[in-house]
Amino acid sequence: MEKQEMLFAKLKELGIPTVTKEHKQCFTAEDVESVAEECGLQPASGRCKNMFLKSKKGDLFCFTTQSASKIDMKLLSKKLGAPECRFAGDEYLASVLQVIKGSVTPFAAINDTENKCTFAIDKDLMKEQTLWLHPLHNDKSTSISADNLVKFLEAVGHPPKILDFSDAEASSSDAAAKPKQAGGADKKAAKGEGQKDVQKETLLSITAKKEEDFANWYSEVITRSDMIDYYDISGCYILKPWSFSIWEQIQTFLDGEIKKLGVQGCYFPMFVSQKALEAEKDHIEGFSPEVAWVTKSGQSELENPIAVRPTSETIMYPAFAKWIRSHRDLPLKLNQWCNVVRWEFKNPTPFIRTREFLWQEGHTAHSSLESAATEVLDILDLYRRVYEELLAVPVVKGKKTETEKFAGGFYTTTVEAFIPATARGIQGATSHNLGQNFGKMFKIEYEDEKGSKQIPWQNSWGMTTRTIGVMVMIHADNQGLVLPPRVAPVQVIVIPVVYKDSAAELNSKAEELVESLRAAGIRVDIDTRSNYTAGWKYNHWEQKGVPIRLELGPKDLEKKQVRMVRRLDNSKEDVPLSVIVPKLKLELELIQHKMLQRAKDEHSTRTRTVMKWEEFVPALDAGCMALTPFCDEAEWEETAKKRSKEEKLSAGETEDERTAVSAAAKTLCIPFDQPDLPAGTPCFISGKPAKCWVLWGRTY
Ligand code: 86X
């Protein structure tokens, strides 16, 4: 464990003596108590409890106190000077402290290189000669004196706050301020899905609001819906079945469609030798800091380090050069579904910007430019259909400017989406015409019908799991996820509303209903769990974004009907059981349609026509994209970028690093759908005659 080694090295460097004991994994203060005796974690007063907290404002704290002490959250918040502290979500554990649940201690300060967390220590601990803290992992405990702990924290740039609770002791006995056993809360957090306790906890709806605290809202939506789990490597996330099945829907559709175009599936190795990767220096150059390398096997250095693919041009095109000899070998149309790794340092966001992601990459070679050009657009339209027809997300199809295109190619086409809640444009997928550049670099040549040597025209195109993030950001609300029916893993959830004696009959009727829906091809599930209330279940399936809920109670059964509730707008309707199948089929289609329509309406109100520079930044500040007449000159594109940033920053605002977004606007695309551009219309920024309409926006 490399991080742990770093920690011990740091302690050694500081001359801090420690003793480390191994034990079973301990997730709670109680767990530590249970191993204390056999491991000699003495004295008891040195055993610690560490609370990782987030304030309402979003500030993070790690508070360390005696294992046995009772902590009142309100009081603690007051002492920290941070209102309404609660236990911070696991996502912060992974991304900020980079430890797993149950392993938080002040030692984790060494991982918080961006100084996002403030460490605080109970003054009562300061007299201890021996504190026991997990050294970044909860299967060990390491001793350190309180003074040395402070020394360590100072050395890693986290001088701690020492909190004095002595003045509060007296009042803490009165009923109102009666402290909670914080250990109880720890246990709850650590044990996960339990019974009654957890019920209360998860009944709570999502705490952050989409309009107020988008980043935390997004994080809550994707974790509570069970789409994502966090991981202890920054920028990497677990795609759980609830999100992966959406990816499978996208795969099924897209793979079917590209196969109709004659594309074949294949799989190339994920590793690329240094030599192959650099065969094509020009296009790699700008990207090279993002390439991840394997340099060791076990403890021995590899003679030749190998890279993990960030994209597969340099892996596939040497093979293309071997396989393409004659015009009869063309067109060659290959696609692979795989993972790629780009070691980015910008703030990662699940689905949207991750270090490893899933995608498909299509690579094709043609004997004519037209054939290649036609395919570029055919593929782009499939990408549009994934967004609009499956995910109910409107996109703008267009061409990238020379500045924004893939540098190794001839031209780049794109589908651009827009997230209203953050007023950011986001690239949805790209389809490139690579021209003959790669053919020349990789010596891909063939003999045409007349026997002369030719270089093929190539395309490449890709779509990633980012699609899912865009869909979530657009459709989810303050109750949680909202899924378009076409991709929802469960389209209809049946909830029998049982009263004491009615359970058996109701459940069996509900099962019958489920069977008939399933037989009709509806993705349906039933929630008969007896340890949760109906109200809890409504909330639960709402958070997961299931488009339709059917409630079946004794009264409904009597009337041969079922209550239908739509997730999209919470509207309700009683539906006779006799027509339930056709009704649901229709409703699912209607919901799909309404979701796209609603998103399209928002999209069009957020697209503003801007004729002159003075209107440009105000349009962006109003949360819009700007559609402008443009001279299409790279220098003026750069000027617009620069000026929009300056204006924004001079207005006293700073770049928002947490969401890794910048104030500068860039061109999203030259939309294919061009409004009229009367001859002589001036460019909005240069005043020269405009060549086209261009869509601009702040971006992800
Ligand atoms: C550009 C181009 C292209 C196939 C696609 O956009 C669709 C699917 N590839 C990808 N690109 C890189 O070439 C690249 C290269 C390296 Cl070494 C890297 F680290 C990151 C990269 N990112 C994008």
What can you see in these coordinates?
Keywords: Aminoacyl-tRNA synthetase, ATP-binding, Ligase, Nucleotide-binding, Protein biosynthesis. Its EC number is 6.1.1.15. The protein is of the alpha+beta class and about 700 residues long. It folds into four domains: about 180 residues, YbaK protein (Alpha-Beta Complex), CATH 3.90.960.10; about 180 residues, 2-Layer Sandwich (BirA Bifunctional Protein, domain 2), CATH 3.30.930; about 100 residues, Rossmann fold; about 90 residues, 2-Layer Sandwich (Translation Initiation Factor IF3). The protein is about 35% helix and about 25% strand. It contains 21 helices and 31 strands. It has an eleven-stranded mixed beta sheet, with helices on both faces. A five-stranded mixed beta sheet has the order 4-2-3-5-8. Strand 6 and strand 7 form a beta hairpin. Helix 9 runs antiparallel to helix 13. It is globular, with a radius of gyration of 29 Å. About 5% of the residues have low confidence. Ligand 86X binds next to helix 11, strand 19 and strand 22.
What labels describe this entry?
single chain, 700 residues, alpha+beta, BirA Bifunctional Protein, domain 2, Rossmann fold, 4 domains, eleven-stranded mixed beta sheet, binds ligand 86X
CATH topology of the largest domain: the name is: BirA Bifunctional Protein, domain 2
Distance between the termini: 34 Å
Query: How much helix, percentage-wise, in residues?
Result: 25-40%
| Rg calculated over all Cα atoms | 29 Å
- Would you identify the CATH H-level superfamily of the largest domain? Bira Bifunctional Protein, Domain 2
Report the principal-axis shape.
Answer: globular
Number of structural domains: 4
Mean pLDDT: 91
Q: What strand order characterises the main sheet?
A: 11-15-16-22-19-18-17-30-31-29-28
- Count of helices? 21
Largest sheet: 11 strands, mixed
Helix- and strand-based class? Answer: alpha+beta
